[in-house]
Amino acid sequence: MKIIECVPNISEGRNKALIDEIASVVTTVEGVALLDVDPGKATNRTVITFAGDPDSVIEAAFRLIKRASERIDMSKHKGEHPRMGATDVCPLVPVSGISMEEVVEYAHKLGERVGRELQIPGYFYESAAKEPKRKNLANCRSGEYEGLTKKFVDPEWQPDFGSTDPSVFVRTGATAISARNFLVAYNVNLNTTSTRRANSIAFDIRETGRVKREGDPLTGKVVTDSEGKPVFIPGRCKAVKGIGWFIEEYGIAQISYNLTDIDITSMHKAFEETCQSATEKGLRVTGSELIGLVPLNAMLEAGKYFLKKQQRSTGIPDKDIIHIAIKSLGLDELKPFIPEERIIEYKLESAFSKPLLAMNLSAFANETASESPAPGGGSISAYVGALGVSLGTMVANLSAHKRGWDDKWAFFSDWAEKGMVFQKQLLNAVDEDTAAFNKIMDAFALPKSSEDEILIRKKAIHEATINAIEVPFKVMQLAYESMDVMKAMTDIGNPNSVTDAAVGALCARTAVHGAYLNVRINCKDFSDSDYVEKMLKNSTALLGKAVELEKTILEMAELKM
């Protein structure tokens, strides 16, 4: 699923009713979850965070910018934070399933719409910048709101979108829109109260490093370049900003990091480097603290990193990997770390929970047995396939931890990870299949009173039917491909669990066969005969392969018993 986050900063931090009114606009868009509203009185500024699918997020961002421009008069605004508009900045951030290049396109789409429909002027910055000098937000915002009149007559600083008519921007100001990487605010705890020692570690780690000095690194004369500017010794980690401070509430010193690109320096990399620097200075890292939300993948990568150091399998459920990350990074030292409240994807799941996957086993069985036609055979096939590859994955994990097989843990861990990928995709297909059925029902329910309505209805039925054919075909492919895990585990896995791998193969073949039946029934009476012929040919061939592979696996299992 493609997910982006949007973090608009509006120039109002004191009027709660007004802040709530502007933030609530986000909730009027389906497919978007409002995650956080963080007002600041001194700055007179509020940071609003929401996320969802890209098109929905762009629509929500546009509505928020529009409402802020209607309700905030920048000619009357005062605050400590630099600002130039009612919606001062509106960064878009890739969270999962989407590239930065795609997010840049969405940023441009949003800005162009803001300029066209609202006339609000503004600039694209960071990855969305259309020229190098505009990448830096500080350049775009120089002069702030009060300097816009002068700025807009400068040919070098004409806005990327919107109007330079004072009748527009005197009230609304200007808005900066960007695409940027996810910024993680991450603090590392130390067993000291010394800010100076915490800063010393921060200087070791952060990208800018520390000022170079002659002789004594603490008291020596600062070395300068030919322009008289201080020379810096670079730190160990790129894309990291850091400073030490003392937190009276906790009674300890911390290093406060901004990880500006976790693809370059991850949380666990910053943590490990901090541990090393602290040890060199006679200090100890006691834990760490995340501020705000974090992408799921950042937690998973951290957990897998520490599991690999322990020579443990990484092909385990996400919740177990996250547990290792929390304990290894000490994220629960100062306060409980609750994944459902701190991980973006989990916050979204709670807002848009999958109705079937959210059920327990009894509820799912009872829902299937009810008078409702969905979930039906397609969803059950996907679930049976997920159970099958779960068994194969279990055997891989048991093999990775088998006494005497210590040299094989990484090999079986790779198989377990492969199995978990199939399991997640098949579980997602449980709800996808029911959703596909519901789309067909919705399409048939569309009005057909006029020629236009008839054409719209016909197109909707056509598209929904194709989707209802392709979802179970995808289940067939996934379930068949997952059988590689069961075959390998039957052949070379823990011999005490060979029957588990064989049962997994039985489930996978059942999933393929069940999904095949759904492909066939959904192809019935479909108007595109060439498409139907292709899908029936491909699905029949795939079923034949699954039956043969099941036979092979069962024969292998018989020889092992």
Structure overview:
This protein has 561 residues and is α+β, with helices and mostly antiparallel strands. Helix content is 52%, strand content 14%. It is built from 18 helices and 13 strands. Strands 1, 2, 3, 4, 5, 6 and 7 form a seven-stranded mixed sheet that branches. A four-stranded antiparallel sheet has the order 11-12-8-13. Strands 9-10 form a two-stranded antiparallel sheet. The model has no long low-confidence stretch (mean pLDDT 93).
Report the sheet with the most strands, covering strand number, pairing sense and barrel closure.
Answer: 7 strands, mixed
Proportion in β-strands: 5-15%
What's the level 1 CATH class of the largest domain?
Answer: Mainly Alpha
Rounded mean pLDDT is: 93
Number of folding domains?
3
**What class would the helix/strand composition place it in?**
alpha+beta
CATH names the topology of the largest domain as Four Helix Bundle (Hemerythrin (Met), subunit A)
Count of helical stretches: 18
Give the N-terminus to C-terminus distance in angstroms: 42 Å
Q: Unreliable stretches, pLDDT < 50, 5 or more residues?
A: none
In helices, the fraction of residues equals 40-55%
Can you identify the CATH superfamily of the largest domain? Answer: Formiminotetrahydrofolate cyclodeaminase monomer, up-and-down helical bundle
How does the SSE layout of this entry go?
Layout: E1 3-6, E2 9-10, H1 16-24, E3 32-40, E4 45-52, H2 54-71, E5 87-96, H3 100-118, E6 122-126, H4 137-140, H5 148-151, H6 166-172, E7 175-179, E8 184-190, H7 195-205, E9 210-211, E10 232-233, E11 240-247, E12 252-259, H8 267-280, E13 285-291, H9 296-309, H10 318-329, H11 339-342, H12 344-351, H13 361-369, H14 377-400, H15 409-444, H16 451-492, H17 498-523, H18 529-560
Parallel strand pairs: 5-7, 6-7
Antiparallel strand pairs: 1-4, 1-5, 2-4, 2-5, 3-4, 8-12, 8-13, 9-10, 11-12
